[in-house]
Automatic annotation (TrEMBL):
Domain of life, per lineage: Bacteria
Limits of the HTH cro/C1-type domain: 9-61
Cross-referenced Pfam families: HTH_3 (PF01381)
InterPro entries, A to Z: Cro/C1-type_HTH (IPR001387), Lambda_DNA-bd_dom_sf (IPR010982)
Organism: Desulfomicrobium macestii
Protein's UniProt name: Transcriptional regulator with XRE-family HTH domain
Length: 71
């Protein structure tokens, strides 16, 4: 995943008051897993769908395996 998209996701999270720690806690995952997902170092259809359900724009995930599977 591009660094640009990771920055876009982080900016979206900030604007919407979404914190990595809160996502991790709610999903029963580590904060590190969420960070690795955001930066594209880890894949997870479950985390991808969580972000989409929160309202994060799909175009921020262009090129990701999860986005291609969900299409």
């Amino acid at each position: 995943m591009s660094e640009k998209n990771a920055r876009r996701i982080k900016a979206w999270m900030t604007l919407n008051g979404v914190r990595q720690a809160d996502i991790a806690k709610e999903m029963g995952l580590s904060r590190t897993m969420i960070q690795r997902f955001i930066t594209g170092h880890s894949t997870s259809t479950r985390v991808y769908e969580y972000f989409i359900n929160l309202g994060c724009p799909r175009e921020y995930f262009v090129g990701r395996t999860e986005a291609r599977r969900a299409a």
